[in-house]
Design a protein that fits this description.
This protein has helices at 3-16, 18-27, 34-43, 46-54, 66-74, 79-85. It is an all-alpha fold. The protein has one domain (3-84). The radius of gyration is 14 Å and the shape is globular. Bound molecules: zinc ion.
């Protein structure tokens, strides 16, 4: 996958999961609606969506560099395999 293909696949994934993501956001105090959330995802550019998947949502640390994320995607055919390949990040 190149950058474009990876970004599109991540966007599709986020849209598929949008109902549970919105529920989660609502619980954490963000009162975004489903349609606003979908619009938000549509407006993200390729780099924004990829960055959101390689940055830890609780501490802001990056799992790998942006370049490494793209390099990994080049040799990998699916988003699921790309996730598996990302370095595991755990909180101590
Ligand atoms: Zn973290």
């Amino acid at each position: 996958m190149n950058e474009r293909v990876l970004a599109q696949a991540l966007k599709r994934r986020q849209l598929q999961k949008s109902e549970e993501l919105v529920e989660f956001l609502n619980q954490s105090g963000d009162d975004v609606t489903l349609s606003d959330f979908r619009r938000r995802v549509e407006l993200l550019d390729d780099k924004d969506i990829i960055m959101s998947y390689i940055t830890c949502s609780s501490c802001g640390e990056m799992f790998c560099t942006y370049e490494d994320a793209l390099l990994a995607a080049e040799s990998i055919g699916s988003v699921e395999d790309w996730f598996d390949n990302m370095e595991n990040h755990h909180h101590r």
